[in-house]
């Protein structure tokens, strides 16, 4: 691999930009391709989506995706149940909650824990296309500003906890804040696949299943 190609890969890694090195196995020629340049439905696009390097015809595709991240708003019970599953799936987890009584290391060991208001810390995190996002507090003062930032970002998944009534009220607030129906359609709420889940552990399974579907297959 040429030095300039390696430098470009390292630069993409620092900027959390998905790229692939495509090598012609006959000539040895290599090129760097950004994910946004991959044609929808192509073998290259699927390789990015499934984090899968491999041979495709006369080319070898080496995927360099940034690590997966999960940003959770709310140091709540559901978050505690989701975290071990997310970590097992390879996500780096960040929990944000300004309520110091909830956001404690004793309740959330082994994750990045920020006892701050979401609007103060989210801009510095970089909500990108390899980041999943969940709003879990039920408190509009905490969830809504975070959702505003998530909807303006490229996160691949936005989930919001709450009943249909809660979702309806949230929808009206977001419409009043200037978001349109296309933006609101990105929010999965009530959060999680409808599998009849009971209790925090089963809800966590439904949530992770929904986020995995968004990551690998996309959501309607």
- Helix tally equals 8
Q: Write the element-wise H/E pattern from the N-terminal end onward.
A: HEEHEEEHEEHEHEHHEH
CATH architecture of the largest domain: 3-Layer(aba) Sandwich
Number of strands: 10
Largest sheet descriptor: 6 strands, parallel
CATH class descriptor name of the largest domain: Alpha Beta
Radius of gyration: 19 Å
Please, how many domains?
Answer: 2
Q: Strand order, biggest sheet? A: 7-6-5-8-9-10
Cα distance spanning the termini: 40 Å
Compact summary:
By secondary structure, the protein is an alpha/beta fold. The chain has helices at residues 3-14, 43-49, 77-88, 118-125, 140-151, 164-176, 181-184, 199-216; strands at 19-24, 30-34, 54-56, 59-64, 69-73, 92-96, 112-114, 131-135, 157-160, 187-188.
Q: Would you write up a description of this structure?
A:
By secondary structure, the protein is an alpha/beta fold. The chain has 2 domains: about 5-65, no CATH class; about 70-215, Rossmann fold (3-Layer(aba) Sandwich). It contains 8 helices and 10 strands. The chain has helices spanning about 5-15, 45-50, 75-90, 120-125, 140-150, 165-175, 180-185, 200-215; strands spanning about 20-25, 30-35, 55, 60-65, 70-75, 90-95, 110-115, 130-135, 155-160, 185-190. A 6-stranded parallel β-sheet has the order 7-6-5-8-9-10, with helices on both faces. The longest helix is centred in the last third of the chain and has 18 residues, at about 200-215. The model has no long low-confidence stretch (mean pLDDT about 95).
């Amino acid at each position: 691999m040429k030095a300039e190609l390696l430098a470009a890969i390292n630069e993409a890694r620092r900027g959390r930009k998905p790229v692939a090195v495509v090598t012609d196995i006959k000539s040895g020629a290599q090129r760097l391709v950004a994910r946004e340049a991959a044609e929808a439905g192509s073998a290259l696009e699927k390789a990015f989506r499934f984090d899968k390097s491999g041979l495709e015809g006369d080319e070898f595709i080496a995927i360099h995706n940034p690590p997966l991240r999960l940003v959770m708003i709310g140091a709540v019970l559901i978050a505690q149940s989701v975290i071990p599953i997310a970590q097992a799936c390879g996500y780096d987890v960040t929990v944000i909650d300004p309520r110091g009584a909830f956001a404690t290391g004793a309740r959330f060991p082994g994750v990045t824990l920020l006892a701050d208001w979401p609007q103060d810390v989210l801009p510095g995190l970089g909500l990108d296309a390899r980041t999943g996002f969940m709003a879990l507090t039920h408190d509009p003062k905490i969830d809504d500003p975070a959702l505003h930032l998530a909807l303006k970002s490229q996160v691949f998944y936005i989930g919001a906890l709450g009943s249909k009534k809660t979702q309806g009220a949230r929808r009206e607030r977001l419409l009043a804040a200037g978001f349109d129906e296309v933006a609101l359609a990105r929010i999965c709420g009530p959060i999680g696949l409808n599998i009849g889940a009971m209790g925090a552990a089963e809800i966590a399974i439904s949530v992770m299943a929904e986020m995995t579907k968004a990551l690998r297959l996309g959501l309607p």
